[in-house]
Design goal:
Elements (H helix, E strand, L loop, with lengths): L1 E10 L6 E11 L4 E6 L5 H8 L7 E6 L2 E2 L5 H11 E4 L11 H10 L7 H11 L15 H13 L5 E5 L7 H16 L3 E5 L3 H4 L4 E6 L2 E4 L1
Parallel strand pairs: 3-8, 3-9, 6-7, 7-8
Antiparallel strand pairs: 1-2, 1-4, 4-5, 9-10
Helix pairs in contact: 3-4, 3-5
The chain binds adenosine-5'-diphosphate (ADP) and magnesium ion (MG).
Magnesium ion binds next to helix 1.
Length: 220
């Protein structure tokens, strides 16, 4: 499904050039669960951004269902990302002028119209203990609550793969448990996961466990 081959990312130029990801290769198949741990600065966010087509690699390829992401035009890539991938970003990513519910439904607005989107959005918010806050704006929510809305949003289009960057970084243990349960359920229903996490418990969900070390993707 997603195939990374010889993926490299350098930031900067000339003497100031630094290598964030070095020669990473990985295959993620339907229903796989990959967890990635690693120190801050080791290249995890860069790797996920490359995998999701948010950032162009310096070298190497990212293929989804055999198609090179960077061989597609912008529209094609946006469409693929919207329909096949779900993202949970490491940092705040909600639209401040939309409510929690509207934020969750946003990928539907840009994607395939669906009459039951509202119902699904409410179900996802409910699974994450957020249904009472559906009409709140991001500015009225705590960091952990905003995170849960972003997690619900990542699932709304029924993605084939979810790329999640430290999704429980700012959650308490109970809420982390809810996220854990939702991920497990979605994975049983067939969604693949690539999960960057500092939580050993969450990482243990991975059937493939990897770590990053100075830009290198290694077995955990
Ligand atoms: P992690 O998510 O594991 O903390 P990142 O992928 O965010 O690591 O960063 C990997 C390395 O690349 C770090 O040394 C970081 O400082 C550097 N880096 C990340 N983003 C940029 C950028 N936009 N410009 C320059 N350097 C960056
Ligand atoms: Mg990061």
């Amino acid at each position: 499904m997603i195939e990374l081959e010889g993926l490299c990312k350098h930031y900067g130029t000339g003497g100031r050039r630094m290598t964030a990801v070095e020669d990473a290769s990985l295959h993620v198949g339907p229903g796989d669960f990959v967890s990635i741990m690693g120190h801050s600065g080791s290249g995890k966010t860069t790797l996920l951004s490359l995998m999701g087509g948010l950032m162009r690699p310096t070298a190497g390829t990212v293929r989804m269902d055999g198609v090179d992401l960077w061989g597609m035009d912008d529209r094609g890539l946006a469409r693929l990302r919207n329909r096949r991938m779900g993202f949970v970003y490491q940092f705040a990513s909600l639209i401040p002028t939309l409510t929690a519910l509207e934020n969750v439904m946003l990928p539907v607005v840009f994607g395939v119209p669906s009459p039951d989107a509202r119902e699904r959005a409410l179900e996802l918010l409910s699974a994450l203990g957020m249904v009472e806050r559906a009409d709140a704006f991001p500015g009225q929510l705590s960091g952990g609550e905003q995170r849960r809305v972003a997690i619900a949003r990542s699932f709304i289009n029924g993605p084939a793969v979810v790329l999640a960057d430290e999704p429980t970084g700012d959650l308490d243990e109970e809420t982390e448990g809810e996220v854990f349960e939702l991920f497990r359920r979605m994975n049983q229903q067939g969604a693949a996961f690539v999960l960057v996490t500092h939580s050993r418990e969450l990482a243990a969900l991975g059937r493939v466990r990897l770590r990053m070390d100075h830009g290198r993707l290694l077995e955990a």
